[in-house]
């Protein structure tokens, strides 16, 4: 009898507990829907108390999960993550509208912001960001980062030194399989940035270069390992997260120390009448502010040397990693599409000639080559989530209320693979960037360098480098698969950028 009552009681307790849980979840969901409606937030999934939607995300292929949400909820959707509002934009027109708004020029306040302290150009905000963007734009244009004007020749010469050195390296491989990601391409691209910013060229096997690249590569991998719910992980995992953050901080400090040595070397040889590079341009700006007694206004009162350090770090990490990965993806697509490679080579031979290297003046006359590079940028979408912005005040977007401090994420990969915008988006078709007359066209939904007020400052330099490296390489070599190797994977390795998985090629000198 007692045993029967115990069983009945346990069954009743279990049923009661399930009813309580179900009722609580129902009330929570109802309250969530009412709160969302009251706030006029965009539609989106509901998460769990305190954590929001974070438990349903992972650090692996987050962009694919966001793409799923966009397909389910539409061009603008939202969710909460650890108390923060996150807005996903998957419509290119809406992205442009949002990123043209002054109220959406902020940057999210995450752990990395604590490390860099608001310095630099990529992660700075407000008046500092506005003044630095204007200053960098003027200085870089003066140094030749433009497709027009006589200074362009200086930039072209700077790039071609590295292109020629890289081609010599490939010729020395004598047809043997090589790993393009092993350092040669990275060294060439880094030297373009380092010569422009601080008049330094690294030689192969330079320990400074190897150490710097190790820290940069490690940094990108470590960022990819951070989890959206790190604040609520079990202690063991939380310790791992803290170790990762501490390692990122230590790497950042070591890189900053290296840049500080460069600044001190420049300061000791500085001549205001002979500006050699970007560091000198900053030293001149500091000197002029000191003479005018306005140092408290320069960099909004922040430490000048730390600002230069972070600017150098921004340009190195953004300029090197993105260009390197785009060239690597270009090689992947050429291996998968040898017919495209042949068409590019035929066009270059026809316009440039067989015995002269391509130059920037040839660029407008090589529409198929341009279209191929555009298709590489579209297909690879190496920054699948673009650049996250943040609101600096409450704002209305597409009829929805977006609160101050919300993170705004442009789903670049989604836009570049939307079948409503692109025919056969999964296929590699350069012709999609050519009109009926065979001239290059650039659709509004093509966003490789971002849009709006925080659009990539280095877009012109990136296009110069991609064109000169890619066209010269295909002009001199057939990119071949080593005998017995399988075609490289089309799935990227997820970190801050999408990186091709390791593969090897044979650079076969063309018979011209």
TrEMBL record:
SUPFAM superfamilies: Cytochrome P450 (SSF48264). One of its GO terms (biological process) is xenobiotic metabolic process. The keyword NAD does not apply. Keywords: Heme, Iron, Metal-binding, Monooxygenase, Oxidoreductase. One of its GO terms (molecular function) is iron ion binding. PROSITE patterns: CYTOCHROME_P450. Its cofactor is heme. Heme binds at residue 456. It comes from the Eukaryota. It holds the Pfam family p450. Belongs to the cytochrome P450 family. This is Cytochrome p450.
């Amino acid at each position: 009898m007692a045993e029967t009552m115990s069983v009945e009681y346990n069954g009743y307790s279990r049923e009661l507990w399930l009813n309580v849980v179900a009722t609580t979840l129902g009330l929570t969901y109802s309250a969530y829907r009412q709160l969302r409606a009251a706030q006029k937030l965009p539609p989106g999934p509901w998460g769990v108390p305190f954590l929001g939607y974070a438990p349903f995300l992972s650090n692996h292929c987050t962009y694919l999960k966001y793409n799923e949400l966009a397909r389910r909820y539409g061009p603008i959707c939202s969710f909460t993550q650890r108390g923060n509002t996150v807005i996903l934009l998957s419509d290119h027109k809406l992205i442009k509208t949002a990123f043209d708004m002054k109220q959406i020029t902020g940057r999210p306040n995450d752990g990395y912001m604590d490390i860099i302290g608001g310095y630099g150009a990529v992660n700075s905000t407000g008046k500092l960001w506005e003044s630095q963007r204007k200053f960098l734009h003027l200085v870089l244009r003066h140094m030749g980062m433009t497709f027009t004007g006589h200074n362009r020749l200086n930039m072209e010469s700077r790039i071609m030194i590295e292109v020629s050195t890289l081609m010599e390296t490939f010729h020395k491989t004598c047809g043997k399989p090589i790993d393009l990601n092993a350092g040669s391409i990275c060294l060439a691209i880094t030297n373009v940035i380092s010569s422009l910013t601080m008049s330094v060229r690294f030689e192969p096997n330079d320990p400074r270069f190897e150490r710097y690249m190790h820290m940069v590569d490690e940094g990108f991998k470590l960022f990819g390992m951070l989890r959206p719910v790190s604040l609520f992980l079990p202690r063991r995992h939380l310790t791992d997260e803290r170790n990762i953050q501490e390692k990122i901080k230590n790497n950042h400090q070591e890189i900053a120390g290296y840049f500080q040595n460069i600044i001190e070397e420049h300061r000791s040889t500085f001549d205001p009448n002979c500006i050699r590079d970007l560091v000198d341009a900053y030293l001149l700006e500091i000197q002029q502010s000191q003479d005018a007694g306005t140092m408290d206004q320069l960099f909004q009162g922040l430490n000048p040397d730390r600002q230069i350090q972070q600017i150098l770090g921004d340009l190195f990490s953004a300029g090197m990693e993105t260009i390197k990965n785009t060239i690597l993806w270009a090689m992947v697509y050429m291996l998968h599409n040898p017919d495209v490679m042949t068409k590019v080579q035929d066009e270059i031979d026809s316009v440039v000639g067989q015995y002269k290297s391509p130059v920037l003046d040839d660029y407008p006359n090589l529409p198929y080559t341009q279209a191929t590079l555009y298709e590489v940028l579209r297909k690879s979408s190496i920054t699948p989530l673009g650049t996250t912005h943040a609101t600096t005040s409450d704002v209305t977007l597409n009829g929805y209320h977006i609160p101050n401090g919300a993170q705004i994420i442009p789903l670049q990969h989604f836009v570049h693979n939307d079948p409503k915008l692109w025919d056969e988006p999964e296929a590699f078709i350069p012709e999609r960037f050519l009109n009926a007359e065979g001239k290059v066209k650039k659709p509004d939904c093509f966003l490789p360098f971002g849009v709006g007020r925080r659009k990539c400052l280095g877009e012109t330099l990136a296009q110069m480098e991609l064109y000169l490296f890619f066209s010269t390489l295909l002009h001199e070599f057939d990119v071949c698969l080593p005998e017995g190797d399988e075609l490289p994977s089309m799935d990227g390795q997820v970190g801050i950028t999408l990186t091709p998985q390791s593969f090897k090629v044979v650079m076969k000198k063309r018979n011209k």
